What does this fold into?
Amino acid sequence: MNLKHLFILSAAAVAPGALAADPQVDVKTSAGTIRLELYPAKAPKTVENFLQYVRDGHYTGTVFHRVIDGFMIQGGGFDKSYNQKPTRKPIENEAKNGLKNDLGTIAMARTNAPHSASAQFFINLKANDFLNAAAAQDGWGYTVFGKVVSGMDVVMKISKTPTGPGGPFPTDAPREMVVIESATLVADKK
It folds into this structure.
């Protein structure tokens, strides 16, 4: 028996369901629920950061404050009065992980500084190749760390929300607030 066969046999000996599944988070919004699947193998620091905000209840009561149909929806940083919620220190950019800003993926929002992402995230409404590390003007891009696995209809509904000025935002704020009511880790289904 060669090494290749040994590997296949050892992999086959693992019981179904014994391998850890990628974590999933339900984001319940005033427009419906979005289920996200996260990829810790590709973006470990980003996923852990996001999950810590979920465990801390940070996203409860935040809004999707920036909605650009045909581009993305962004939330997780401001409450219903447009007060910015306090965050932990920013995390390292992991955009060079091979994941792309494709339709339905979730990525970290950041400032012009590559390593400035904290709590805000966005969901891509199309393939936004210019946000990927390979095409980014700053050479970094925006870290993709998961994707929508159910509730894409909710994402698209949010994307069609009429926008205008709101709080400190001169444009792109939904005229009717889309509130994140909760974000919870989905328990393993056994």
Summary: The helical segments are 3-12, 44-55, 152-159. DSSP finds three helices and ten strands in the chain. The chain has a mean pLDDT of 91. The CA atoms of residues 94 and 173 lie 28 Å apart.
